Structures are given as structure tokens and as C-alpha cells.
């Protein structure tokens, strides 16, 4: 009862461990296993499906208690301060390695692997945070973070299993998305600290590529984080500020100061994870945990002890085989990660045979708006017309002001006043001064708007060709998208590479199948009956004979593991030949994506161009009205200034008395053209007031 209604604290963990140990003592003495004489029905509810599962097997009770022990540890870990590297994976690991997986679906090998790696990943996260708070060396922090990625990758593989997906239902997608987000996030953290290490070593080119990789991976994490709590979003935003700042600073420094070549990320040594967390061990016979054996007097312990020894032999065999499998798997995973080859998308030639849906959507939208390009061109033409009218009006106003200034300067010179300093015009009349100020203001506004207008025309010219293409036949759109031109040799290289990648997957599947068979054989291997009738001195020989049943499957596994070297060598050769094709396909794919993005951007820019064009028309229409009114005002002010100069000149002429003659008067009959022809300038002439010129022509009198 205490184990079923266990309190959610560490006392509850102790209760579960004690009950588990006593069950272990019980099942070694009383035949309560499957189909044995004292077996009783044991019922538990599956956590994910909610179904009640019943087995007449004492081991099922033990398995459920172990599962709950792991679950309780995980709950306590989530509530605890994140500074401990111990984790709940121990219970799940012991459950996976020592109990059948057929009891219920939530105890399947994949689910337990999922739980183990989720627990180890979260424990490694705690250690990562502690290492960062303790300001450990950047390389160590990077390795710890890389190990977090490795654990979550294993968890993701378990989540992608079909059995796992059917069991978890909707929660599988949410978990997978979260785990994938964490994979990208902690990969970004690892590369951030690798960039810091490169910075410490003054490898400024490496620093740029590590920070760029961290930024790319963080962007992927942000995409996958949609729907996550605000605390997660805030953490991602903070990390983006850190990594983005680091990348921008590093790139700027390298571009302007260090000028180091930026290597490809593939050329750098990959970050190997450092597994520093440990699973809490489960020992069902530890009296410090289980307490005294309450069934000690029921049966002799000899058979139980011998069975435990045999179980240890089986566990040792499994550990040896699994060590070899995991070593080969690690090499294979690292090799495949370094190649970055996906059999499904190694050639992706199908994408070039059709227009992508996002582009089809834009073409369909434009097909019901046939006047799109025409409207845009007309709108920009109208804007250009109004722009030209405004410019002409402002130029005319400026010309009028300059002409008035020149006339004013001439008048001052004729009246004998000191000329204004070089470069400074004579003070204009108040009316013209106001016109000048307004004209300067309009010219400044017009100049700023002119730049915007030029940019708008440039943007229109940039997008109008794309809009015409999207409005045209689909065949033209498809023809405008780049597509690879592969030779027969290139196609043969692709086929060979895909065939070898298929062999790699076949090798993986066979290895997993053999491993599963071995685990099932070990779980079903119970020689307790034989041990009861075997003399103690013959136990070792019996163990050796019983363990021979695993030789055949061990041979198959050895052959599978040995084949890996040949397969990877063939894959390496095929990849070398594929390099040129891959580069060409990558370039075409980049051009294809760029073209699609450019066409989509042109479509999306249309509404903005129309809006800005209308705003420009409204602005210049308003400015045109103001400029026209200012032009009229300038004309009137210039006329008034001219009339004022005429009056001033006539008044000045009347004021001056005629001088006493000191020499014979020059003949008045000599006309002005003749004076000019005689080489006289204005300085040789007497003041106008001293000349008595009867019946002067009107134009000379005005002068």
C-alpha cells in the first residue's frame, strides 16, 4: 500500500527501493513467476494509454515499481535546484536490462531508451549550467553541451520509432519538437563556447565560423520553439542577443582588422561530448536500501545465489556485446554526421520538376489581377509627372529670386552705394525674403523626397520584371527557375551513392534486430530449475554450457560489425566522386531558392510599392499646390520690387543739382552707342543728374 500510494518526496523513493528489494527476495524463493504455481494476478495502469494491464508474474510488479522509481526521481529532479548531476536514468536502465519488455508498451525498449536519454540529457543540462556559472574553460563547456546534444539525439531516435509514436499519440509530436529544439539550442551553445575558445587562441577565422554556426543553429531552435512558454522564448531571445552580438563583433573585427580566412565548419574538428553525469545505481540486494530480508527463513539461498551469478554472467555478456555495438555505432554516427548525407534528399531532383506551392500561390493571386503591372507603371508615371512639375516651379522661383538679386545689385551700383561684400547679396525686400525662405524650405523638402522617389523608382524597376513573369504563363515561370544539368556519369554517381547509403541503413537495421533478439534471449533465459538439481561444484560448467546458446547470434553481430569498415570505405569512395555533383547540385539549389525567394519578394513588394507610390503622389500634389502659390507670390513680389527700384531711381535723379560747367559741354547730340564705341564706360560719364537730356527715350529714362 505504501509503494502504491507513495509520497512525492525522497522518503517515497526509499519506500519504492525497499519494496523492490523485498520483492526480489520473495520471487527467488516462492514460484510466483509467469505460469508458476504461486503466481497471482498483478494489475497496473499504463501511464500513457490509461489502460489496466494485468500479468500473473511477480516480475511485472517489480518492473512497475522500478518504472515508478524512475518517474519519481525525475519529478524530484524537476523540483530540485539544478545543480546535481545524479539522475533518474538508473531505474530505467536497470528495468531495460533486467526485465522483459513485453509487459506493457510503456516498458518497451524504445520507451525506456527514451526515458533514459531524457533523464541523462536533463542531468547533463544541470551540469552544463553549473559549469557555466563556475566559469569553466570554454572547451570543457563546449564538450559538456555537445554531450547534451548526443543524449537528446538518442532520445529523438527513440521518439521517431513507430511504436513510440503510436503509444504517445499527440504528445509524441510535442516531445519530438521540444527535443529537436533542445538539440539545436545546445549545439548552438557548444559552438558558442568553441568560438570563445578560438577567440582565446586568437584563431579569428575559426571564431567567425563557430559563431556563425551557433547563430544558424539558434535560429533553427527558435523556429521549433513556437508554442513554448514565455520563459523559453525569453531565454532564446537572450541567447540570440549574446550569440548575435558575438558573431557581428567577430565578423567585423575579422573583416576590418585580422583578415583571416574563415574555414568551412566541416574542416574543423567536431566537438566530442563529455558524459559527466551518472545514473543512480539500483542494487536490489543492498541491505542498506532494502532493509532486512523478511523472507530469509523461507527457502535455502543456494539456488537464488546461483541464479544471481548466472544473471551476472548474462549481464556481462550483454555488456561486452553492447560495448562493441555502441563503439561501432558511435563511429558510424560521427561518420554519417560528418558527411551530412540523407538518402531521401541526396539528389532532390524532384523539386525542379514543378513550381513550388508558395510560387504557385503568388501566380494564382496575380492571375485574377491582370492589371497589376499596368497599374504600377501608371502610378509611377503619374508620380514622375507631378515630381517634374514641382521641380519646374521651384526652379522658376529660384530664377526669379536670382534675377531680382542681380537687378538690386545693379541699382545699388548706379546709385553709387558701396557694393555688398563678395558673395553676399544685397538685402531683399521683406516680401522676397519670405519667398526666399519658403523656397529654401520647399527645396530642402523636395531634395529629401527626391532621394526617396529615386529609391522607389529603383525598387519598381527591380520588381516589375518579376511581376510580369509571375503574371505570365506557368511555363515561363518554370523555365525561369534554375534546374541541374546532369550528365549520365553524374546520374550514375548519384545512383551508386544512394545504393551504398541503402546498404548503411540495412546494416543499421540488422544490427538493431540482432541486438533486440539477444536481449529477448537473455530475458527469457531462466535456468533456476536446472540449478536446483545441479551440484554446486558443477555450476561453472553449467554456466559455460548454457551461455553457448548465445554464440550463434554473437557471430552474426560480429559479422555485422566487421562489415561496417568495408561499407564506410565504399561510402567514402562514392562520396569523393559525388563531391563535384554535390557542389553543382548545391549551387543550383541555392540559385533555385534565391530565385523563388526573389519572385515571392517581388509579389509581396507590390502592395508596398503601390502604397508608397500613392503616398508620393499625395505628397507631391500637395507640394505642387504650395509651389504654384509660391510662384505667384514670387512673381508679384518681383514686380513690386522692380516698381520700387524705378521710383527710387527717378527720385534720386531729381535730387541731384546740375554742376557748374568747367569745360565746354560735350555735344549732346552724341548718342549712347557712339559713347560706347568711343571706349567710354560708366565711370567716364558724369552723374545722370548733371546731364540735361531733353526728350530722352523712355528706356533710357528708366535706366
The percent range for helix content is over 70%
Looking at the structure, the CATH topology of the domain at 138-276 is Serine Threonine Protein Phosphatase 5, Tetratricopeptide repeat
Pick out the low-confidence regions. 665-697, 699-703
**Major β-sheet profile:** 2 strands, antiparallel
Give the helix/strand class. Answer: mainly alpha
| Net shape | elongated
Order of adjacent strands in the largest pleated sheet:
1-2
Helix and strand pattern = HEEHEHHHHHHHEHHHHHHHHHHHH
Overall number of strands: 4
- Radius of gyration computed on alpha carbons: 46 Å
The CATH superfamily of the domain at 138-276 turns out to be alix/aip1 like domains
Q: What's the pLDDT, averaged over the residues? A: 79
Taken as a percent bin, the fraction of beta residues is under 5%
- What's the end-to-end separation, in Å? 124 Å
CATH architectural group of the domain at 138-276: Alpha Horseshoe
Helical run tally: 21
Q: Could you name the CATH class of the domain at 138-276?
A: Mainly Alpha
How would you describe this structure to a colleague?
- This protein has 703 residues and is an all-alpha fold.
- Among the domains are: 1-107, no CATH class; 138-276, alix/aip1 like domains (Serine Threonine Protein Phosphatase 5, Tetratricopeptide repeat).
- It contains 21 helices and four strands.
- The strands form two sheets. Strands 1-2 form a two-stranded antiparallel ribbon. The chain has a two-stranded parallel sheet with strand order 3-4.
- A hairpin with a 6-residue loop joins strand 1 and strand 2.
- The chain is elongated and about 160 Å long.
- The protein starts with 9 loop residues before the first helix and ends with a helix.
- The model is unreliable at 665-697 and 699-703 (pLDDT under 50).
